[in-house]
């Protein structure tokens, strides 16, 4: 994997493990135009892990072409984050386990009406594993002080 930007691989790893915001994921649509959406993610084993419904547009697009782009960056200053490109692999057997891990990361370990709703509506959830090929960090914290 190629890494560019001000952060070391360890800093990127730390950021991705501790940042709990949705990832913006893009895939190529059948028209040739990018399709962008937001998904919850986990950073594990050098890959980004997500889950989605098997009938979702993103799963359909990644089945056709596994190349994708991603960005993990907040919307509030100081602006900083990670963006990159990778290849997605789909796993139809472990989707529920991944969904539960994502729910715990974003909502917490306590069962809530929202977490129950997510579990109840999942029907054959698909794991989307993105293996980054290129990653670039940026950090405008220094510029934005004062």
List the helices and strands and how they pair.
Layout: E1 2-4, H1 9-18, E2 23-28, E3 34-39, E4 42-44, E5 47-52, H2 57-64, E6 67-73, E7 80-91, H3 95-106, H4 113-121, E8 126-139, H5 141-144
Parallel strand pairs: 1-8
Antiparallel strand pairs: 2-3, 2-6, 4-5, 5-8, 6-7, 7-8
Description:
The mean pLDDT is 94. The protein starts with a strand and ends with a helix. The longest helix has 12 residues, at 95-106. The radius of gyration is 16 Å and the shape is globular. Strands 1, 2, 3, 4, 5, 6, 7 and 8 form an eight-stranded mixed beta sheet that branches. The protein has helices at 9-18, 57-64, 95-106, 113-121, 141-144; strands at residues 2-4, 23-28, 34-39, 42-44, 47-52, 67-73, 80-91, 126-139. Strand 2 (23-28) and strand 3 form a beta hairpin. Helices cover 29% and strands 39% of the residues. The protein has one domain: Electron Transport, Fmn-binding Protein, Chain A (Pnp Oxidase, Chain A). With 146 residues, the protein is of the alpha+beta class.
Q: What is the domain total for the residues? A: 1
**Helix-strand category:** alpha+beta
Q: Tell me what the CATH architecture is.
A: Roll
Radius of gyration: 16 Å
Q: What's the gist of this structure?
A:
This protein is of the alpha+beta class. Helix content is 29%, strand content 39%. The chain has one domain: Roll (Pnp Oxidase, Chain A).
């Amino acid at each position: 994997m190629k890494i560019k930007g001000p952060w070391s691989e360890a800093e990127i790893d730390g950021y991705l493990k501790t940042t709990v915001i949705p990832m913006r994921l893009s895939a190529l649509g059948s028209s040739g135009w990018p399709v962008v959406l937001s998904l919850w993610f986990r950073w594990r084993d050098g890959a980004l892990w997500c889950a989605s419904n098997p009938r979702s547009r993103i799963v359909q697009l990644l089945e056709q072409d596994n190349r994708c782009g991603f960005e993990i960056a907040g919307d509030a200053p100081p602006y900083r984050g990670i963006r990159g490109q990778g290849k997605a692999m789909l796993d139809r057997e472990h989707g529920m386990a991944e969904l539960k891990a994502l729910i715990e990361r974003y909502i917490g370990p306590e069962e809530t009406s929202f977490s129950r709703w997510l579990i109840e509506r999942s029907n054959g959830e698909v794991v989307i594993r993105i293996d980054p090929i290129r990653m670039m960090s940026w950090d405008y914290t220094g510029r934005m002080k004062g």
